[in-house]
Amino acid sequence: MFRYFVRRLLQGVLTFFGATFIVYALMFANQSDPLQALAGERPLPENVRQALTERYHLDDPFILQYGYYMKGLLTGDFGTSLTNRPILEMMEQAWPTTIRLSFIAIIIAVLIAVTAGIVSAIRRGGVFDNTTLVITLLLLSMPIVVLAPLAQLIFGMRLQWVPATAGADSGLFALVLPAFVLSSLVIATQLRVTRASVAENLRSDYVRTARAKGLADRRVIGVHVLRNSLIPVVTLIGTDLGNLMAGAIVTEGVFNIPGVGFMLVRGIRTEDGPLVVGFVSILVIVFLVVNLVVDLLYAVLDPRIRYE
Amino acid sequence: MRGQFPLKMAVGATAIMLLAAGCGGGGDETEAADAVISIGIGEPQHLIPSNATESNGAEVLAALFSPLVDFDADNKPYLVAAESVESTDNKVWTIKLKDGYTFHNGEKVGADNYINAWNHAAYGPNGNGGSYFLERVEGYKDLQSKDPDGEEGPKKAPDPVAKTLTGLKKVDELTFTVTLSEPFSGWRSVMGYTTFYPLPAAAWQSEGVLKEDFEQAPIGNGPFKMKGKWEHDAKVEVEAYDAFPGDKPKVGGVNYRIFQEQTAQYAELMGGGLDVVTQIPIENLASAPTDLGDRFKTSPNSVFQFVGFPTFQKEFEKVEVRKAISMAINREEITTSIFRGSQTPATSFVSPAVAGYRENSCGEACTYDPAKAKAAYEAAGGPKQIKITYNADGGHKAWVDATCNQLKANLGVDCVGTGEPKFADLLTKVENKEPVGLIRLGWIMDYPLMENYLGPLYGTGGSSNYYGYSNPEFDNLVKQGSAAPTQEEAIKLWQQAEDILARDMPVIPLRLGQNVFGHSERVKNVEVDKFQKVEILKIEATS
Amino acid sequence: MSNIESVTQAEVPTAIGVPVSPESGHEKPRSLTGDAWEDLRRNWIFWTAAVLVVLVVVMSAFPSLFTSADPGSCALARQHKGPSGAALFGYDFQGCDVYARTVYGARNSVLISLIATTIAGLIGVIVGMAAGYFGGWVDALLARGIDIVLGIPTLLAAIVLARRLSSDPNESGFWAVALTLGVITWTTGARIMRSSVISAKNQDYVAAARMLGAGPGRLMIRHILPNAAAPFVVVLTILLGVNIATEATLTFLGVGLKGDAISWGIAISESAPYVTETARPLVWPSVFLALTVLAFIMLGDAIRDAFDPRLR
């Protein structure tokens, strides 16, 4: 177990470098003119262009820029964004916000998806199954760019049940609606996967055996089936994080939550290389950790799997 | 499955409302004059006067600083922090400051504060976005340096030969002179811009170097002072500065709340958490008048929207073709149906925000007449295909598509709107002379003079003349106007220059911007000026 | 160096009397496909879904069969007008015929999504199976590869890729969008495949097949894949819907379909802001989209059930 853990950590370091390199390269390829992007449609005076180009090493070749960046990163210096703000400071503000939001979203998603998925699987083809199918499909066919403003309009502006926007240091209550919207991104997939894998397991031999043994239905499903069905669902939570981040880009904008998605949008919009790479670096670390946890969870859920 | 949640939310919301009510009831009775109001803005890029070239930064700085001059309803400058601004030859300007102005840290405002701030602004290596405002001041060139091997090259540019502008001279504690390299009758107006605010001695790390964190809590000479620091992506709070000698503000403080999206601002206004939204997004315009009632307002601003014909696109070479396209566009329909009245049709080459503006200076060419347009277009042999290129990140797709649909119907041509991801991409394509067709452009003025539209947009080599229009006769008239001894004479010459544009039709004027703003019931006397800033001294809280 | 391994010795070699592979468990000498077809023929869900899918495909190929209106003829004067004989679903914000645009939008939406999902599915199967089956360093390498792709913000990758792929202004951007979507969306499928394969390869019947001498290729394709496919197919059918929506987002950002392209995603995003004025231009493309995705999901479910030997 310990050896496995160490090995994964070492792999993680490599992944980290691989990902930051690719992202840096992507940003570099995407960069047409970051200074003009910053100035928007205003003409950019020559002297300003010259001064900023030098300040941010924009005239150096790619490898050199990457080198400068990694050198800073390894000494804990994330550099400054093109608007001259220390990126570390921006992260301290953005990460806790987004983690809170994603966490609530995942909890909402799993609660709804797993419950509804199990019920649908048990009564396959029933009214509940078909209703949830249609509802999830409707959610699915609504891009989040549509869903988020719609939810805000109904619950925040018209009914005023929840605050219309959340802002920087908002309470949990203000995050409920954005989290709900965000969770809609992953509920559909989680629900369908739970349903499929529960249905699969319901037909397996061990369930027949358990039933033949005279175990109550509740125990068969609650203990045996659920545990075996959760493996793909747990995997999904790992990948869902990616979906949530993509969704956060829209949701955080609509609900004005200055989190990671919010910063990434700005970074991509203004071609702010250091900003994007800094945030993505941490994002990769989060992925690695979550996926390590997910892999370890396999072992808990499936005793036949062992790590060494 | 979702059915149960609204109930819980409702219960939660009620609890919160009760809590809020409880707090309000138990607190002190606040006077309207002490009330703190909230205004929605986007995250400013900078809060250094010479580097705040976008409207969010300018909005906050307008509360913290008091300008030398401001503009009245007729766009004429009047004195604020200046006692007098005089010149006999439009080249040497003598500025006398009013006595009694102090910075928020107690320092007296003097001539040095202006001179140092302006030198810093103009010094090239500082990279200040507003530095070009000082271009006209003598010695500006010596503060810039050229990179010897071009931008892409590895070598660094040498330091400029001078650090201070030779055109700025202190006369006494409250008087200084500005010498321009060429006479310019409009200089008084130019000094109304953000770049020209003074900076206190406390702002400097060493001579010519600003303190790193100055912009986190700028110290100004204006009616409001910072309360705490700039909380990035959250808010900037300011409170009334008691020792301010000018017109006192009518509120105790302003909380500038920062939003990334305009739609979020409007949602917050509707949700009751925000007092003023300076620009209501188009999506909300259909419902806003009913949502807000008489708290929904409009006022003109200086935005000028148009499409340009790149000179390298030979199919648009003929003036008749350009005029025919212009005549085939129903501006009125687009401003009402697409923009819901948040913009108005443009029929001139400058905005009404400047003195000297004449309605319909474009004449027949900007009047919708599909039949005439089609006849003229066919007679001139216009191209069968028209393309309009725009930047997709600016919300331009709707009106470009609508314009294309009008051209399709009225000229019988094929028209396509093509979105480039960013404005910079659009510029790159134009620079590479790719067939972009008509290009979408817009302009916001820096100072309210006709020259500020004519020079940058249509002058040979103008900073925003991306389409490459060039007419020596026009350039000459603009230049003569700038050097004219009085504003009246200047305007006359500039208007002659504008007439040339109506003849040459290098661009199609489309729309004029409007501030479409709204506010909560907690505030009144809300006005938004031509620079899209809330009139901070006029706004009041309802008691 | 194996990453994930089964060491439950007791379970592996004792496979006596386990129904080894689907074919041999049956008396009639019918193939798996034959069996499945017999099963599907009597399944009404299959038929409903199949008819819907065929309808949508025909609509994509020959939109003019369904409407005589020109989707490109729009006039602001008709903005948000209600349904009439000429325009079944009324007019949208630009004054275009909603029905005509929905019909013509099918091609871009469905084809792009189908191509993208196929690409994502292929990459997902190959990567996921290889990682799950071989384990060890192959798994470590591929799993980290997936992590890297997952760690990169979709939006950024999509913008950069789409921009690189569609530098030619005269192309519609169709293939650029399809490829971009395929290349960035395969990870979910791959991870699901990997974990399903890991749990499937530990099953007794696989061990039995291996003992009977089946090679890795046959094991993977004949034995593991059919049993690990269930959650994977589910993810893919959902991806179909997601890709239609993502295409809209890309187009909205200016890196997707070019010019006056029509698609459901574009229609949905563009009508959404005005939903309070009139819901029709938003609702109809959404309904078509939901029905299409529903059809594909039902089809996937039915086919999967039919091919699942344990159901019989």
TrEMBL record, chain A:
Residues 95-298 form the ABC transmembrane type-1 domain. This is ABC transporter permease. It is a multi-pass membrane protein. Keywords: Cell membrane, Membrane, Transmembrane, Transmembrane helix, Transport. It is found in: Cell membrane. Signal peptide: none annotated. CDD domains: TM_PBP2. It comes from Plantactinospora alkalitolerans. The chain crosses the membrane at residues 12-29, 99-122, 134-155, 170-188, 220-238, 244-265, 277-301. The lineage of its organism: Bacteria, Bacillati, Actinomycetota, Actinomycetes, Micromonosporales. Pfam families: BPD_transp_1, BPD_transp_1_N. Belongs to the binding-protein-dependent transport system permease family. It comes from the Bacteria.
TrEMBL record, chain B:
Pfam families: SBP_bac_5. Residues 80-464 form the Solute-binding protein family domain. PANTHER family: ABC TRANSPORTER SUBSTRATE-BINDING PROTEIN, PERIPLASMIC BINDING COMPONENT OF ABC TRANSPORTER. This is ABC transporter substrate-binding protein. It comes from Plantactinospora alkalitolerans.
From TrEMBL, chain C:
CDD domains: TM_PBP2. It is a multi-pass membrane protein. It is found in: Cell membrane. Residues 106-300 form the ABC transmembrane type-1 domain. The keyword DNA-binding does not apply. It holds the Pfam family OppC_N. It comes from the Bacteria. Keywords: Cell membrane, Membrane, Transmembrane, Transmembrane helix, Transport. The keyword Transcription regulation does not apply. Its main location: membrane. Gene3D superfamilies: MetI-like. The chain crosses the membrane at residues 44-62, 110-134, 141-162, 174-193, 228-246, 282-303. Belongs to the binding-protein-dependent transport system permease family. This is ABC transporter permease. It comes from Plantactinospora alkalitolerans.
